[in-house]
Amino acid sequence: MRVAARSFVLLLASSCSAQELGSCAPVAGALLPDGTTPDPCLFQCAGETLHRFHLEPVAASATSGYVRVTGDQGKSYYFGACGPVTGVTCVGTTVVGPPAAIQAWGGSPPKIDSDSCAILGSTDNRNCSLSQSVAGSGLGPGMMCNYTGGTGGRSFAVHYKCNNGPMSLAATQTGTSTYLITVSGEEVCGVVYTPPLSWGSLTLIFFFVGATLYVSAGVAYNVKVRERKPTLATAFPQYAYWKQLPGLVRDGCQLSYEESVKAYYRFQGTAPPLDSSLKRRLQEDDDGGGGDPNT
Question: What is the pTM of this model?
Fold first, then answer.
């Protein structure tokens, strides 16, 4: 029983941790400062607090479309900072989707023979999430991006590790066909992002603020200037007109319904129903009450 309870607590804790860290993805429609060029280096991570990662410093270190990292055993790793790796190809090797990174143990860009290289993963199989911040550093979180679909089942991860100090890169083989590229430094730290209010939110705010000002100013004017009694019927601004609003809304809805019914009958090619009671009532009002004018 204790084992089951402990397992449940661990499962609950891991679930809460996963929800807190959240997933990350490139920001759709983000543009570079020129206002026209898409920005593939801006990532946003969901969670209780939104975080954004500006990976332009990593992209700035790229040469000819790739960032080169020297790993263990002298192997070279070429990866795209914010998207597919370009400027270097593993000739004769293909994967599903654009390659995200290439490992080479011989040759040099732009073309490396397939017997000296391998593709480590595809950008079509990218899954990014927040990683824990360094304890006690006061810095933001980092981000971990995992890629699968490489040559021969290879996969790799890029860890954007938030750390004090200048940006540094390292690469290592963590398993038979798994690899890790680490980008460390303050420049890859996540920053808290507060999204701007939507047009809908702004409209609601302006509406309620305007309504409050309208009512309070109207009541103050009627009571202080026009010296009316502070009651709903006498102090509320344009009370007689607002009192008619529910009836006008009801009449509008009823008229819209009846006109829709008539349009339906006309579309079906059948005779529409007789005039509605609403239209007759409105006509009677126009005629002065609908009674005999001679009485």
Answer: 0.65
21-192 belongs to which homologous superfamily?
Answer: Mannose-6-phosphate receptor binding domain (2.70.130.10)
| DSSP string for 54-90 | E-HHHHHT-BTTBEEEE-GGG-EEEE-SSS---S-EE
Given CA atoms 260, 265, 266, 272 in this order, what sign does their dihedral have?
negative
- Among the listed residues 137, 136, 142, 127, the one whose alpha carbon sits nearest the alpha carbon of residue 191: 142
Where the chain has pLDDT below 70, the residues are: 1-21, 134-138, 272-295
Q: Which residue carries 């004090």 as its tokens?
A: 164
Buried b (16+ CB within 10 A) or exposed e, 38-50: ebbbbbbbebeee
The amino acid present at 41, given as its one-letter code, is C
Tell me the domain boundaries of the chain: 21-192, 199-286
pLDDT tens for each residue of 112-167:
999 999 999 999 999 999 987 765 556 778 999 999 999 999 999 999 998 888 99
By three-state DSSP, how is residue 259 classified? helix
Q: Is the peptide bond before 110 cis (omega within 30 degrees of 0)?
A: yes
Closest C-alpha to 50, from 143, 137, 136, 126:
143
